[in-house]
């Protein structure tokens, strides 16, 4: 996804939440060594958030769900006009797996991101699903279907476009 975004002069970094000590909870800082505040700062400094998750038993991974849980704190974080601090930020979703559920995972994650203030562009999701119960993961699958590549490029183009529009003109206060 970062390569597709780079085609639109968007730079970024991969942050694997699983590699950090992120505590469960619904606040911006759960204290006692919680590493979420540093990740949250990166999200707040970005215009585009890409949430990527594998499919586990037809669901987003538990780490993805924990990220959504932590983003729930944004419901009470507002600017001086009463807008959530995530207003004006764009989010897209990437899903991989070896089982059905890509549409369900995408829908669940997009809805949660929208609920906490992110804007979702048209065609803001991409996925790859290998052979059901297969042993080949995305990173080892070899050439990917053209449909996955086109969906990824479209999600990136639309995210970059929407981010620019929102940077130029923020949502009005309620």
TrEMBL record:
InterPro entries in the cross-refs: Flavoprotein-like_sf, FMN_Rdtase-like_dom
Per the database record, which ranges form the NADPH-dependent FMN reductase-like domain? Answer: 3-131
Any Pfam family: FMN_red
Taxonomically, which superkingdom? Answer: Bacteria
Q: What does the record give under GO molecular function?
A: oxidoreductase activity
Q: What is this protein called?
A: NADPH-dependent FMN reductase-like domain-containing protein
Source organism per UniProt = Virgisporangium ochraceum
Lineage of source species: Bacteria, Bacillati, Actinomycetota, Actinomycetes, Micromonosporales
